[in-house]
Amino acid sequence: MRLRWATIALLVVAWEVACRTLVRSDDYLAPPSEVLTTGSAYLAQPDTVAALTVTTTRFLAAFAVTALLGVAVGLALGRTGCLVPAARDMMTVLYTLPLVPFYPLFVLWFGLGFRSEVAFGAIHGAVPVVLGTMAAASRVDETLITATRAMGAGRTRTLTMVVLPATVPDVVGSLRIGAALSLLGVLLAELMVSVDGVGHLIAALIANLRGPELDAVILAVCVGAVAVNVLLQAGERRLSRWREQPTPSAHRVAR
C-alpha cells in the first residue's frame, strides 16, 4: 500500500515539474497545483454538479441493465450445452466490434437523450458480463445439478438456487469490467450527441481551451470509476471467501 501511494505521489510531482518546465505553453495539460485550485472551484459550481449528477444517473441505469441482462443471458447460455460454443463465438465477435459507428442507430431506435445513452452504455458493458457469466455457469459441478433435478427442481429453480450461487464470485468479477465499459459507453454517447452530462461538459472545455477545469472533470470521473471498482472488488472478495476455506476432507488428508 505504501509503495502504491508513493508511486502516485511521484507521478504527481513529475506532472507538476513537467508542466512548469517542459510544456508551459500547453493549453490542456495544467499542473496539479492549478487543477487543485481552479479545477476544484469549477467542480463546485452548480452547472458542473448538475452535469456530474446527470452522467451518474445514466451510468447507474446502464449498469443496472448490464447486470440484469448480462447475468440472465449468461446463465441461460451457460447451461445450454449445445449452444455454448456458438454463443461464445457470437459474443466474442460482438465484443471486438467498434460500437461507436452504430450510435446513430441507437438514436434512431431510442431517441435523442436519456434512453439512447443508457442503451449505448448497457450494450458496451453487457457483452463481457455475458461472456464471464456464461463461462462460470458452464463450469458448475454437474453432480450438484443432477442432485437438484433428482429432488424435483425445475430448470428455473436450478438456475436460481444452484447455478447462480456457485457463479456469484465470477459474476461479480465480470461486473467490474462491465461497469467500466458501461461508463465508457455513456461518456462516448454524451461526447457525440448530447446537450448535458459530463461528455458535453468535456467537449465544451476542450473547445474553450480550459485545461485546469478539463483535467479536474476527468479526474473526478476517474475517481468515481475507481470507487465503483473498489466496491465491486470488495464484494467479489467477500463472496469468494467460501472458496478459500479448506473442506473437512482436506483437513483429514492433512492429518
Molecular structure report:
Helices cover 82% and strands 0% of the residues. With 255 residues, it is mainly alpha-helical. Helix 3 (46-78) packs across helix 9, helix 6 (114-138) packs antiparallel against helix 8 and helix 8 (155-192) runs parallel beside helix 9. The protein starts with a helix and ends with a helix. Residues 249-255 have low confidence and may be disordered. It is a multi-pass membrane protein. It is found in: Cell membrane. Belongs to the binding-protein-dependent transport system permease family. Keywords: Cell membrane, Membrane, Transmembrane, Transmembrane helix, Transport.
Q: Could you provide a short overview of the structure?
A:
This is Taurine ABC transporter permease. The chain is mostly helical.
